[in-house]
Amino acid sequence: MDLGTIWFILWGVLWAVYFILDGFDLGIGTIMPFFAKSNEEKRIMYNAMGPFWDGNEVWLITAGGVTFAAFPKTYAVMFSALYTPLMLLLFALILRGVSFEFRSKVDSPGWRKIWDTCNFLGSFLPALLLGVAFANIFKGIPIDQDGILHGNLLTLLNPYGLAGGLLFVALFAHHGALWLAFKSEGDIHDRAVALAGKLWPVVAGLVVLFLVMSLFMTQLFANYLVNPLLFIILLVAVAGLVLTMTYRKAGRVLASWGASAVLIGSAALFGVVGIFPALLPSSLNPAYSLTIQNSSSSPMTLAIMLGVALVFVPIVIAYQIWTMRTFSHPVTKADLDYEEAY
Amino acid sequence: MDTLMLSRLQFAFATFIHFIFVPLTLGLSIIVAMMETKYVRTGDETYKRMAKFWGKLFLINFALGVVTGITLEFQFGTNWSRYSTFVGDIFGSLLAIEATAAFFLESTFLGVWIFGWNRLSPKLHCTSIWLVACAANFSALWIILANGFMQHPVGYVIRNGRAELSSFLEVITNPYGWNAFLHTVTGSWALAGFFVIGVSAWHLLRKQHVDFFTKSFRIAAGFALVSTLLVAAVGHRQGNIVAEVQPAKLAAMESHWETQKNAPMYLFAVPDPDNEKNSIEIGGIPSLLSLMAFNDPAAEVKGLKDFPAEDRPPVTLTFSAFRIMVGLGTAMLILAVLAFIARHHPEEASHKLLKIFLWTIPLPYIALQAGWAVAEVGRQPWIVYGIMRTRDAVSPIAAHQVGISLAAFFVVYILLASLDIYLLAKYARSEPH
Q: Which domain holds residue A73?
């Protein structure tokens, strides 16, 4: 396998890991206004993601950085063509980020309400925008040979883009409910499991809808027909979807969350594999697409960066898993009395 | 205004706000780690309370630093896509290394540190803040090496219409980048030292929690003095490097128009770029500029007139920012010595001195921002010195898009920065638990 292809796969995997990890934070933020009955319950939700959210968000920085390093032209066109949605995403993430730190710093319901709203918007909007953006990338976006977008934000809000957005919101909300169930006990735990149960049919329905739309509205299946072995990715996704339900019903919430993670990861990879070897397909003319061939860095940079990734990414994964294990206990009322709690 | 000007304003504004919060992160993380180490070594609970009190300020400050940093990484793509395409082979990898090797470590272990006081052994907990401190400063290294490539491009060849990597070793040993890194982090450590000194002085003025803030003052005073001495030494070396690799920037820093040997330095001058001279020059010290720039009083210093007008940076801004930085740096050196002398019994220092320490807090902030203004404004009209002009680097996007995002940046950042500074002030004045 050549370096370009290796980096293409790593690129897809990094985005998938970002969706899996930040997905549960964004999901918890999205369900919070509809779920939490009191300030105490909100605080349990904030603290359920407390030690993790910042480390999770770095996967976005890394995915962005790796796009820049390995496929500079894709990075340049992807973010300038998608200028407005990306700016919206960044501002939403800014509001979410500060809401964690600010919320508990002034003891007033009005103050908390402001940051709760920011946390909700900063969770829901990124989930939606990421879904819309990636669905559009999977379908191809109207970029010309100079990487200029022919269209605007509304162009991206086409039926397929919107289906992608809704799918991401549902996947993340379901994923977040399961994480909350894992990190809580008693009434909140039970209600979080029940919410995941209610969200599951929505997720399943949207997965099917998205696949059917992909079949009729995109070229994603072309690679799969050429190499049917790739259908394993879809099988894994379906297995994740089914297992997350069976584990949940068996009362194994962490396993259920893991299956949901598999579902999210394989859903992202399904699209990435479908657009190979393009990273940013053009819907105007396939010749304008940004591909491994015409957008990657020099072999020297790709080789050095591969070395860096092979050394550091496993280390990062190791200490992030250690962190998750260290803080795997359920958040209780006693934890809320902890001085540094959110 | 066109897309270029709006994009420049947006990047300058976003970086400026980001860099209000970054230096305190770089320095205070180390001070908090020193405090916690002292707690682990001595078992004295005061040091644990100190780590928690200053740690809380660290976290409030960190929140804005981290969220404003994320947008910067993406702005190279959104607003400077031609630049990103041209240098991504080199510049992009440095940013990616920063994220994987440093930023992950910093963010993950900060979470561990915040939530781990009762869940980790004291030693492991202390290790996590040291990891945060090292990773934060290590992160600065990669960012400034990336900036170093823009200032003094090395280790590249122009191939396939872009700058491609030819020697990774040269890129990561770029002398400009390393020295600018040292200058920035030591300046940031000094800033954090003065921050702790100033906040402690505020409490000591009110004779409250004397033991707690005397101990904080003492740690910070030593830290500030060492850092301020280092920043001056490294700063002198920075001047030498600029003289060598960016002669137009050096000439603008000094508003030096005529190429000459034994070039003088003026204590006071007013640049007049339109007429290619200084309208006022007072207190010229012969040969001082040659000496400072090249460590040789007889050295020839190239004047601005010997650069084509389109290759000159904005003189007045570069010149003034440099003067502000050097002036404040000198003041900081004196104040650091005073704080060091007072460190054993700061509570007995005169009211006047304690008040001066309190009002010292903003000075390093201004000095650091001015220093970066020299580095970035002085680099103009180049985005990559000598090989790509800023005007050729901007994205092919509509001006109204950038106008709207700039307005949003302005409103959101000013609002959040004000709230953050309000919270910092509120918690700095609070009683340590």
A: 3-219+274-336
